[in-house]
Amino acid sequence: MQTLKRRLAPAKRRPASAGLAGKRRSRKRLARPKISGRRILVAVVAVFLLFSVGRSVLPALGIETPGLPSFGGGGDTPTDAPTTKAPKAPTVDLNGVMVPGGGEPMITLNPGLVRLGGTVTVNGSGFDQGSVVEVYLGPSATAAQPSGKSKPSKAAAGKPVMVGTAKAGKYGIFTLNFPFPTKMTTPVLEVTAQARGSDKVAKADAAVAQGAGQAALSAVVGKPGDVINLTVKGFSPGEELQVFWGRINGDPALTLKADEDGSVGKTPIKVGVTAVGTTSLVVVGKTSGAAASAPFQVLRLYPSIKLAPYAVKATQSITFSGAGFAPGERVLVRLNAAGGQPVMAVTTDGAGGFKGAGLTMPYQLKGAQSLVFIGEQSRAATSTGFTILPYTPQARTNAYGGLPGTVVNFYATQFAPNEAVHVYAKTSKGAKGDLVSAFRVDKKGTARAVGQYTIPGNTENSVIFELRGQLSGSTATVNFKVDSSGGPVDIPTPKPYVLPKDLEK
């Protein structure tokens, strides 16, 4: 009963201050609600969804997020994505070959035979409208793996690389362009297009063009011997490269070696000898057989010759120097003709010139002459003229005149060096002279008080002495006046002169 009375009894009125304090305590309890396990689960799911959106949607829009791997279209950054899926197995037997039955995703590549560093277009169809298609580049399952010790490129290292994303259009069609790698060690790569979050996938092989290297020159015009820079790529790693000018056989102009990427950086080379006009520099891989060429305009050579002196006598030498020929070639020297047997050959230096060459002139040459210079490889030609001067000797006797019986000897100058001089005597002009003496001049063409001849007793008026050089063919004449003796002179008739063999020439 007492308990019931308490419940039915009216409550006591609380002071106003006590009511306000209670409300405040109640509000505090509402401001700090207890965190339940359900709320924690909801928060974790929200964070997961946000992270997933950041990984998938933002890269497709071209937006990179900090802390996430980049899959942008260069083809050189490896992805952490799982291995790409394989297309569904063929389902239809057509002419004995299992082929897809239709409606499956498909991609084609343009071009299918790819040049390193070129652009490849991927055309896809059969995907879901609006789906995001990821395109990967990786080793082909059917392509042979690279051999040797060369370091493979990232795209050929065994893990596909994302090269771009595209959105399938109204009919499930998309188009994507991506740059093909510039460094490859496998001849075939595989392109995979896979719809994100779907089993739609298609593959196609991209074959790297073999035998089609690339060569570039720093200049396209020059003459043989000019220095230009050559850059080469697209060959087998470490192979020997032969460089030709205007041809692809014979001995190469030079030999280079490709690096581990099949390339050669800027390398100074000399323009080789080839036909004037438009030609090509050709690079051939000795191992792969790959070839590359670059056009080049070869300018004409203008050789020149400096000769000294321009006038000489027999036994004297002329010297000459040349410039403007091809570097390292032989220059053939001919006399008075552009063909026939050359009289000598000189080799040019690295600048296409030469110095210090010379020729000694023989006695048989007389008057104006020409030397013709022709480059053996370049065929560049020039000529220059010179003159062979005659010898003009002078002679005199030990006396200008005398009576019959006078013994005469001779002085001579300006004959050819070391030649034999024969002395002929005649008593009248036009008469045939008789050989009466001989001597040899020294290396300067001079002789003093040489030879001997006695004026006969029956000689009247004068004796004409003719001195003939036997090598030079030159002649000096001396008139010896014979005074009148006033009567017969008893002088024995001289015996005929016998020429010594050592004075024949």
Description of the molecule:
This protein is mainly beta and 505 residues long. The protein folds into 4 domains: 153 residues, Immunoglobulin-like (Sandwich), CATH 2.60.40; 85 residues, Immunoglobulin-like (Sandwich); 86 residues, Immunoglobulin-like (Sandwich); 110 residues, Macroglobulin (MG2) domain (Immunoglobulin-like, Sandwich). The chain is built from 3 helices and 34 strands. The chain starts with a helix and ends in a 23-residue tail after the last strand. 27% of the residues are buried.
Helix and strand layout, with pairings?
Layout: H1 2-8, H2 16-31, H3 37-60, E1 92-94, E2 97-99, E3 106-110, E4 113-114, E5 119-125, E6 132-139, E7 161-167, E8 174-179, E9 188-195, E10 201-208, E11 214-217, E12 221-222, E13 227-233, E14 240-245, E15 254-257, E16 264-270, E17 277-285, E18 291-298, E19 304-308, E20 311-313, E21 317-323, E22 330-335, E23 344-347, E24 354-360, E25 367-375, E26 381-389, E27 394-397, E28 401-402, E29 407-413, E30 420-426, E31 434-440, E32 447-454, E33 462-469, E34 475-482
Parallel strand pairs: 4-10, 12-18, 20-26, 28-34
Antiparallel strand pairs: 1-2, 3-5, 5-8, 6-7, 6-9, 9-10, 11-13, 13-16, 14-15, 14-17, 17-18, 19-21, 21-24, 22-23, 22-25, 25-26, 27-29, 29-32, 30-31, 30-33, 33-34
Query: How many strands, which pairing sense, and closed or not: the largest β-sheet?
Result: 5 strands, mixed
Radius of gyration: 53 Å
CATH topology of the largest domain: Immunoglobulin-like
What percentage of amino acids are in beta strands? 35-45%
Number of domains: 4
Adjacency order of strands in the biggest sheet = 4-10-9-6-7
Q: What gross morphology would you assign?
A: rod-shaped
Mean pLDDT reading: 81
Name of the level-1 CATH class of the largest domain: Mainly Beta
Which CATH architecture of the largest domain? Answer: Sandwich
N-to-C span: 179 Å
SS-based class:
mainly beta
Approximate helicity band: under 10%
Beta strands, count = 34
| Poorly predicted runs of 5 or more residues | 1-31, 53-82, 143-157
Number of helices: 3
CATH level 4 superfamily of the largest domain: Macroglobulin (MG2) domain
